[in-house]
Write a structure and sequence with these properties.
Blueprint (H helix, E strand, L loop, with lengths): L18 E7 L6 H14 L3 E6 L14 H12 L5 E3 L12 H11 L5 E7 H4 L8 H4 L4 E5 L8 H10 L4 E2 L5 E3 L5 E5 L8 H9 L10 H9 L9
Length: 235
């Protein structure tokens, strides 16, 4: 299988990086909520790089409701542009079948330098349903988790889910910034600017012929209009 490194990153020859953020999702389309969260996570955790990783076949999404992977990948690359730290990886499009996070992480752990720390970024809503993910307990032996707040979801629920579903000996960190798994990997809360933007709304506005300007990068908005995306009945 070919490497899933971003096209503009030659992993074997570039200056080594030791703290890498991984931000998965459908990005259907990517918008300012994703981009601003990524920017703030990079600064807060002093990441050397953060990779957006569009899912090719999301396990929790029905394929008929999804814009094709190459299109979503193209929009994500347009959004990121030449940002010095944010990059885009097509790793999940190179593997057949569903885009299971655990398989992506296993692959990257083999490909990346052994001293590279991985920080897997996801929303509070997603980690509260972690028991629905494939081999979810193994995930906590592969990387740190960075949990982003979501409107309408309560942080206090996470400890119960982790203790019940993941491991009975997960402990709160002394500074109350999250938890530590017996593996040594941490589950960190990260506050970011809560922008009330959703890809679902952008698709609906586009389908209704209404403006999505200022909800997503202008280059992505024009790409959507030029290619007549989201004009069918998908949600």
């Amino acid at each position: 299988m070919k490497s899933g490194y971003p096209q503009n990153l030659k992993a074997k020859t570039q200056k080594p990086f030791s703290r890498l953020g991984l931000f998965g999702g459908t990005f259907n389309p990517i918008h300012y909520g994703h981009l601003r969260s990524a920017e703030e996570v990079v600064e807060a955790l002093q990441l050397n790089q953060l990779w957006f990783m569009p899912a090719a076949v999301p396990p929790h999404k029905a394929p008929p409701d999804l814009t094709p992977f190459p299109v979503r990948l193209a929009m994500t690359r347009l959004a990121v542009g030449r940002h010095p730290v944010l990059k885009v990886s097509d790793v999940e499009g190179r593997r057949p079948g569903k885009s299971y996070s655990v398989e992506t992480l296993r692959f990257l752990k083999e490909e990346l330098p052994p001293d590279c720390e991985l920080f897997f970024i996801l929303g509070l809503d997603a980690i509260l349903e972690i028991q629905t993910w494939k081999d979810y307990r193994e995930l906590f032996h592969l990387c740190h988790f960075v949990v982003l707040d979501r409107p309408g979801f309560d942080r206090s629920l996470l400890q119960e889910v982790l203790l019940k579903e993941v491991h009975h000996d997960i402990q709160p960190l002394a500074d109350q910034t999250g938890f530590i798994h017996p593996s040594g990997y941490r589950i960190l809360f990260q506050a970011t600017t809560l922008l009330d933007i959703s890809a679902t709304r952008i698709r609906r506005l586009t389908r209704e012929g209404r403006s999505s300007r200022y909800l997503l990068p202008e280059r992505v908005r024009r790409f959507i209009l030029r290619n007549k995306l989201y004009l069918d009945n998908c949600q």
